[in-house]
Amino acid sequence: MAAAAGPGAGSDWISLTMPGGARVVVTTRTGGDSLPPYDGFNLALHVGDAAASVLVNRRHLQQRLALPQQPAWLEQVHGIDVVDAARVDPGSPAPLADASWTRARGVACVVMTADCLPVVLAARDGSVAGVAHAGWKGLCNGVIEALAARMAVPGEAMTAWLGPCIGPAGYETGGEVRAAFMARDARAAEGFRPVTRADGTPGYLCDLYTLARQRLAALGVAEVAGGTHCTYTEGARFYSFRRQPRTGRFATLVWLP
Length: 257
Fold this sequence. Notes:
This protein is α+β, with helices and mostly antiparallel strands.
């Protein structure tokens, strides 16, 4: 997958092109109109930030990416519902969903995160692309599989890219999270490392990247890139709910130019 220059002079946004031509951009927290603790490029309306600041940031995002309309914003609920981004009306309330896909040119699919995992899927022939918001619940319950099903492309004909999320060194969970994954696939044990928690009870360090790669491999998606960032430790660049519960959200977008 080819990396490209950021969408603006001095930008530290992540920008790349998927095989087949789909464009991917990940924003960061730098710049923008939001004040602390949301400083600065917060794109979420549901976290307590001033709506006027968020809307300024969203307009700036659209302008910098030269999109013909606002991205298909979602109201994310840690579920597995998937929508067609081309059917999302920018003037209506955001649909309750955690993934979207598109075959329409210039229509941007988008998810917002601050520790959860953004998973981008794109057809090798450039015909369709989508993105999923995969927190542990959505990932465990099949949001990647649901997105792939709606895109209606065999796994062998798709590539994937894993955006920034909390890394395994910072994501401590209880045994119930491991048990939920193990109930679906015993191989999920590879995504958990036992630790002793601060209160002396047993816990696990959860590797969302490994768990997502397992799900993608089961779908037949052989080419998976990304998975190199940690939102928890890269505090100057990314929002992290676990590091600071009152915080903003950055966005991962994919569209067919």
